[in-house]
Amino acid sequence: MQSQFLTLWAIRQEELQYQRLRSESIITPEVFNDVMHGLTDRRGAAEKRPRLDLGLKRQALVARVTIFADLDPRKRAKISRLLRPQLALPGQPILRKGERGDSMFFISSGAVEVRLVPQPVRLGSGDFFGELALLDNRPRNADVIALGFCRLLRLSSRDFNRLMRADDGLRKQINAIARERRDGAPAN
Ligand code: CMP
Fold first, then answer.
1. 64 in ligand 1 pocket by Cβ < 6 Å?
2. In this predicted structure, what is the pLDDT of residue 185?
3. Which is deepest, 12, 75, 78, 166, by most CB within 10 Å?
4. In degrees rounded to 5, what are phi and psi of residue 161?
5. Distance between CA 9 and CA 149 in Å, rounded?
6. Ligand 1 atom with the shortest distance to the CA of 138
7. Is 181's C-beta closer than 6 angstroms to any atom of ligand 1?
8. 160-187 confidence digits (pLDDT tens)
9. Residue of 103, 116, 136 with the most ligand 1 atoms within 8 Å of its CB, for mutation
10. CB 144 within 8 A of CB 86
11. Rounded CA gap, 78 and 3, in Å?
12. Across residues 24-44, what is the average pLDDT?
């Protein structure tokens, strides 16, 4: 997992360098697009789940999420099969305001910033984000950026809808937090 973070970090640094070279017109758009394609492929390969990250490891990550922590282990194991581990690097945009939502995220470790105006909100280990676009069928209402190295668990909108139908308790908790966020209350 650590070496995976390092590889992704190196790719991100390269990306920032190419963006700088492009913004200073040192490289042409064609060269920029070409190197960015290469980076996308390398990032895809680096993000592939490590072979050893089997069920048990994922369940440990799921147990760190507040709304899953008290579930009985069988139920948690079932939910963990729906979640896809994903890493995020410091400064990496995870969600973009205005984009269509096709998934939500749970933070297993690390912290993110929700770029709300006038005041950004920080979310950390155990929290979730990206649920509003799925619940309201609306575009993302804010950018969400990783503040440090994050271990995230991604839930697709299809599985989110299944989970919301299947589990009363989880549905109520997610809806309660979403309501506070829509109202602009200090939610986390
Ligand atoms: P979504 O609109 O899908 O994408 C941006 C996310 O930021 C949003 O879902 C919420 O998960 C999160 N968010 C929006 N407003 C708040 C808030 N007031 N407090 C915490 N998180 C928020």
1. no
2. 54
3. 12
4. -65, -40
5. 9
6. 2
7. yes
8. 999 999 999 999 999 999 999 998 854 4
9. 116
10. no
11. 29
12. 88
Residue range 89-102: mean pLDDT, rounded: 96
**Ligand 1: which of 102, 141, 156, 177 to mutate, most ligand atoms within 8 Å of CB?**
141
Give the whole-number percent of the chain exceeding pLDDT 70. 93
Picking from 171, 173, 169, 166, the residue whose alpha carbon sits closest to that of residue 188 is 173
Average pLDDT over residues 54-63: 76
Return the sign of the alpha-carbon dihedral for residues 68, 70, 71, 74. Answer: positive
Does the C-beta of 145 come closer than 6 Å to ligand 1? no
Instruction: Return mean pLDDT, the chain.
Output: 89
The predicted pLDDT at position 55 comes to: 57
- Specify the length of the chain in residues: 188
Task: Give residue 116's pLDDT.
Answer: 96
DSSP letter at 152 equals E
Report d(CA 117, CA 27) in Å as an integer.
Answer: 35
| Dihedral in degrees, nearest 10, Cα atoms 154, 125, 147, 38 | -30
Question: Tokens standing for 8?
Answer: 């992704």
Residue 4 makes CB contacts below 8 A (sequence gap 6+) with 46, 47, 50, 87
Is the distance from the beta carbon of residue 116 to the nearest atom of ligand 1 less than 6 Å? yes
Q: Which residue has the higher pLDDT, 44 or 118?
A: 118
